[in-house]
């Protein structure tokens, strides 16, 4: 299966224009044979912090973005994951939705809010989210969630085969902007966690600076051995990276040898991870 991460700096507070761009990008990826396409965090509204403007760009979970993605998934026979600004119960959420042919949509609300997001959004309350699809079980998290190692570990132990990560990576967390290999801290962390959790990651970031924020780009795809097989992209790049994987190879990576079986080697008599109320 071909996995795609789409990187763009979307237009701020312009959901209709951004949805049109998203549809065009998805159709191009379908023509390339993509089975999964991941788009950035807040790709529909743009990544802004003005509560009034965000509210104008927000939508309910069953709004026009879900309609568009569900229609494209059904028509083009692929899985889509996209970030958007959700309105519910008088609050705004930094959310992502997954659509897949013949399946109910999966909705996720970002659990860990970063910096000024805390002034605008309500923290997620839907727990860790995974969706069964024809290409495997896909876990969803958003950007800053990856800084909390319990998230990827919990999704892996809960049964996810790969992780879709809409992001809008910015500075402000790490003392050094890039390491000696040219990776930002967020990208390096994703690659390391992919290896530690035997969980491939498809990370799609915002890019550029047109929204008043300097995004770091760095969209990437990592396999279950922690190899960056596509990307990271540049800060100002708009485009797509792709990688090909098989579900069989992803699952086989959970056993490194007869004596190296990371998931079986966990000391659950000493520690555990609770995923949506179930202890692993």
TrEMBL record:
Disordered: region residues: 261-280
EC number: 3.5.1.100
GO molecular function: N-carbamoylputrescine amidase activity
First-level EC class: hydrolase
One Pfam family linked to the record: CN_hydrolase
Occurrences of domain CN hydrolase (ranges): 1-247
Gene Ontology biological process terms, A to Z: putrescine biosynthetic process from arginine
Database matches in InterPro entries: Aliph_Amidase/BUP, C-N_Hydrolase, C-N_Hydrolase_sf
UniProtKB keywords: Hydrolase
PANTHER family named among the record's database cross-references: BETA-UREIDOPROPIONASE (PTHR43674:SF2), NITRILASE C965.09-RELATED (PTHR43674)
Protein name: (R)-stereoselective amidase
Source organism of the structure: Roseisalinus antarcticus
Gene label: ramA_2
